[in-house]
């Protein structure tokens, strides 16, 4: 117990309680089944994709290595968020350890920005493949992928570290009930009796710097791709060029749209239930993870054939 100059007394908090959907308790019932289905689908589909790329020599190419990285990120994010949410829904296990809460916070912030950065690198890969096809083998090499992966890990891993550190150093004055299903930074920080302006400012600046710069570069890459495609005169060349980046574009569109919806819900939070942003945040961590391998598996002929050969070997 510690007394502060402002008259408040802080009691050391050893754990938090995730008190989610208290205004809409029925949501837990109808959300738990589709959420568990999406979780199993995401884990299974991403695992199959990873094994297929690892087993098929024809898929040992830079683009598929980047796709493997995306699948690994999806698996870690799902494991970090969804099992705990389901434990709350099914067994009312609301308690989460103080340090486990901030580890979850770090992984969510770090891996979300890593996914965004991976999309940016994949957009550059598609730009080179379509706009500079003859130079593609010399530009997009295994060394390029290794350097890109190191950049993705270092940039996002380092810049998101202060988010949980700043929150963990706050004084919580005995308040430990988080009005959320996950340890989101602002949901945790607002329990503190300290000034959280720095926390809010840092998350805002870093979030928009990382995600914003990635989206700008992705938009630039696809603008150049579109300009190059519109200049193709050979019959069927435009359709072939667009098909090479169709899967990637669909996922980027979905990724950006759901983030935009989440931001808009926070902006108009007085007009919607506080549970809506919480719901969107949970769904974003699992729907996209399930969608990613399915879109690539359906739309990419090489992956589809690789999965079929893998299933035949299993039989």
TrEMBL record:
Keyword terms, alphabetized: G-protein coupled receptor, Membrane, Olfaction, Receptor, Sensory transduction, Transducer, Transmembrane, Transmembrane helix
A Pfam family: 7tm_4
Principal location listed in the UniProt entry: membrane
One of the GO BP terms on file: cellular response to lipid
GO molecular function, one term: olfactory receptor activity
Keyword Transmembrane helix: yes
Transmembrane segments: 29-52, 64-91, 103-124, 144-166, 205-230, 242-266, 278-298
Its membrane topology: Multi-pass membrane protein
Highest taxon of the lineage: Eukaryota
Any one GO cellular component localisation term in the record: plasma membrane
Annotated compartments: Membrane
Residue ranges annotated for the G-protein coupled receptors family 1 profile domain, each copy included: 45-296
Function summary: Putative odorant or sperm cell receptor.
PANTHER family xrefs: OLFACTORY RECEPTOR 56A3 (PTHR26450:SF40), OLFACTORY RECEPTOR 56B1-RELATED (PTHR26450)
Protein's recorded name: Olfactory receptor 56A3-like
Organism classification: Eukaryota, Metazoa, Chordata, Craniata, Vertebrata
Underlying gene: LOC112910934
């Amino acid at each position: 117990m510690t007394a502060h100059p402002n008259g408040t007394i802080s009691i050391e908090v050893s754990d938090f309680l995730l008190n989610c959907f208290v205004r809409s308790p029925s949501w837990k019932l109808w959300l738990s089944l589709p959420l568990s289905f999406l979780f199993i689908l995401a884990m299974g589909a991403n695992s199959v994709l990873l094994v297929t790329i690892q087993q098929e020599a024809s898929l040992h190419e830079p683009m598929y290595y980047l796709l493997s990285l995306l699948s690994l990120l999806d698996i870690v994010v799902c494991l970090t968020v969804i099992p705990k949410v389901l434990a709350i829904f099914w067994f009312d296990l609301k308690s989460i350890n103080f340090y486990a809460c901030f580890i979850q916070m770090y992984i969510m912030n770090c891996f979300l920005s890593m996914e965004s950065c991976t999309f940016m690198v994949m957009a550059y890969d598609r730009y080179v493949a379509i706009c500079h096809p003859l130079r593609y083998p010399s530009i997009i090499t295994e060394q390029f992928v290794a350097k890109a992966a190191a950049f993705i890990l270092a940039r996002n891993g380092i810049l998101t570290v202060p988010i949980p550190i700043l929150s963990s150093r706050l004084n919580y004055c005995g308040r430990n009930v988080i009005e959320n299903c996950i340890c989101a930074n602002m949901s945790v920080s607002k329990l503190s009796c300290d000034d959280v302006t720095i926390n809010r400012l840092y998350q805002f600046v870093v979030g928009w710097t990382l995600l914003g710069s990635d989206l700008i570069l992705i938009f630039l890459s696809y603008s150049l791709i579109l300009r190059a495609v519109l200049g193709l005169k050979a019959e069927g060349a435009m359709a072939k060029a667009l098909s090479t980046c169709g899967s990637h574009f669909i996922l980027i569109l979905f990724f950006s749209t759901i983030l935009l919806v989440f931001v808009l819900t926070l902006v108009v939070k007085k007009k919607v239930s506080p549970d809506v942003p919480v719901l969107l945040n949970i769904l974003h961590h699992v729907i996209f993870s399930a969608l990613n391998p399915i879109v690539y598996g359906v739309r990419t002929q090489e992956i589809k054939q690789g999965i079929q050969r893998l299933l035949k070997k299993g039989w």
